[in-house]
Amino acid sequence: MLEGSLVRLRAYSREDIEQAWKYFNDFEVKKYLNPGIPFPIKLEEEYSWYENLSSSKDTYSFAIERKEDKRYIGGCGVNSVDWKNSNAKVGIFLGRPYWSKGYGTDAMKVLLRFIFTEMNLHKVLLNVYSFNERAMKSYKKCGFVEEGRLREQIFRMGRYYDTIIMGLLKKDFTENMINKEFGA
């Protein structure tokens, strides 16, 4: 298990799947996750995803567990690794009851620590939609910076929005963590 101040990242268990399915089928959660049509998924599809978790060598999925009560609250992971160029793409989601409480930022910091210290990667990338201001604020707290913008890339809620590409270098993450640890 990987620990932060508020959450643990751990392996998914079969017991998490029904709750994950409920989170994914909440339109308010789903609209931030996938550029496709936010159509509900079947519970069987979520179990199938779980059964195939260990078959990919370039993805690492973690359940996010709240430390205070060991409750499953969401997931995060490394969605693809480019070993040659030493970078990875990441993603995260939380169930709506856990938004704006610091869990997502804490989970992302733990995931980044894993990526930079255990996987020894150089850079982490993610995509976020321009209407997801809450997530962008969290990513900036973790040290991410905007590196690019795909204008009017996604259609949601009756209009087009930009997809923002954010990145974080290992040296910037390490420097940021050292400065916070030593109060610089």
Explain how this protein is built.
This protein has 184 residues and is an alpha+beta fold. The protein has a single domain (2-181), classed as Gcn5-related N-acetyltransferase (GNAT) (Aminopeptidase, 3-Layer(aba) Sandwich). Helices cover 31% and strands 34% of the residues. The chain has helices at residues 17-24, 27-30, 43-51, 103-117, 133-141, 170-181, and strands spanning 2-3, 7-10, 60-66, 71-82, 87-94, 123-129, 145-156, 159-169. An eight-stranded mixed beta sheet has the order 1-2-3-4-5-6-8-7, sandwiched between helices. Helix 1 packs across helix 3 (43-51). It starts with a strand and ends with a helix. Residues 7-162 form the N-acetyltransferase domain. It comes from Kosmotoga pacifica. One of its GO terms (molecular function) is acyltransferase activity, transferring groups other than amino-acyl groups. Keywords: Transferase.
Strand residues, percent: 25-35%
- The helix fraction, in percent, is 25-40%
User: What is the C-alpha radius of gyration, as a whole number of Å?
Assistant: 16 Å
Runs with pLDDT <50, length 5+? Answer: none
CATH topology call:
Aminopeptidase
Protein name: Acetyltransferase
GO molecular function: acyltransferase activity, transferring groups other than amino-acyl groups
Keywords: Transferase
InterPro entries: Acyl_CoA_acyltransferase, GNAT_dom
